[in-house]
Design brief:
Alkaline Phosphatase, subunit A, 3 domains, alpha/beta, 553 residues
Length: 553
Amino acid sequence: MLDRLYTVLFTLLSLLFTPFVSATDKSITQPPITITNVIVMIPDGMSVSGTTLARLFKGQPLALDPLASGMMITWSGDGTIADSAPAGSAIATGWKSQSGNIASIGKHYAWPNTRHPKQGEALRPVATLLEAAKLSGRATGIVATSEFMHATPADFTAHDASRKNYDNLSEQMVYNHLDVILGGGIKYLKPESRADKEDLAAILRARGYTLVSNTAQLKQFSGSKLVGLFGKTDQHTALSYDLDRDPIREPSLAEMTHKAIEVLSKQPTGFFLLVEGSKVDWAAHANDPVGIVSEILAFDQAVNVAVDYAKRAGNTLVIAVADHANSGLSIGDRNTSNRYDKTPWHHFTAPLKRAKVTGEGFEALLPENWQQRDNPQIRSIIVNLAQQSLGIDNLTEQEIATILQAKSGAMNYAIGPIIAKRANLGFTTNGHTGEDTVLYRYDPRHQSLSGVVDNTEVAAFIAKAMQVDLDASTNYLFQDAVNAFTAKGATVREDRSDSENPVLEVIKGSQTLRIPRNKSIAWLNGVEVPSAGVTVYNGSRWFIASNLVEKIH
């Protein structure tokens, strides 16, 4: 009897002191989380000081704040201070390169412990995370506030030795099987704006895309292939700063992000989305604190949209990181050297809060003849507009002269420093800077991407999360065409009868394969055949997808 009583008491005590495990404990009752969707968010040129200033301005934490997990090194293959093209390429491809290079291997590698290419591989295109995601069956898209073929969005979707080759980049992006493209740059789809005279808008429609050009059209769209290009006019190739934005004509970055996720998430096998807050960088170049804060807060709202979706979906990785820093912004300048600890926080933000527009918005308010420096009426208009739209009632004669001397389209470079001086915000340069940038992430797996990491390591982390192989994707999408076809006994030659639309011609027996530059199609004996990726000509070599090589027997 006592033995039975001891047994019962021991069992009860064991249950009492055994830690309770909930049946809802996901780590025990559910299998490991698989990352289906990835959202990469790049606030171009955003520095730590920029986010600090934006937080002070807002007066409460940013959506980014709880996601901070480490720092990212931004160096290029041969330089400490990176241009946006190689900086974005490193995140997109896992390869460092040089200024101007878009998703291509560089020519110079000076840093130790940097991945070096094989000899002869300079300027070879390399697959991006977006392209690898597409090969894996995922939907893909890009969102930017710059022209859609600007450096960072191009880094994920196109390949060229130079970021300036807008015709090549935009054509590749049109043909690269994206599901969503949102940003600026409508004029680059029009034949009259292109050296190759291609009507890319017509090509997009023929490929099943719907083109939208204002906020209402964007919100109403319910299909699966979307191109939305916005701006004050067709000639304003980028979107306005968020502070200056006409909400009827130009959606916010958050609204574009929401729509992109809505469209892409229809794909059951997942999606990859790039979101760039492009004009943080532009404002930083101009040393314009109002533009910097406006764009960081707009980007932060987009981050909130992405993370909110990721938390609901449960299978979505969000990575946010600036490709590089810009301007050397400091909260405090030479004039606070002896009173920095006595300067209240609102001193740095009050002059910014009084501004209703950025310098770009200020210029839009001026009359067409505003550059008539000797016109007293123009000077009076500038003084009045400064009071009404910038909150400045004490413009100096030198500041008026600075405004009058500003170049058309570059008023931020005049107005920005005028406001910064009143806020005691310092800047060291109108260019990029070489410090690390903050790495932010939301990962439902709670996987570690922390500490100080290289920009190429970010690419590797994302590729592993998506279970894709960037090197294998490169080998599949970008074979050396001449080597591949001559190995099959074919004759290869270039048709340059149209210098802006060159074609690689491959002949073997009764087969003739014509492969145009920048497109994802070819013609076999006059019949159109699809390519798994875009054909790239880097100035000396042609690179094609493997499925085109297989067409020649």
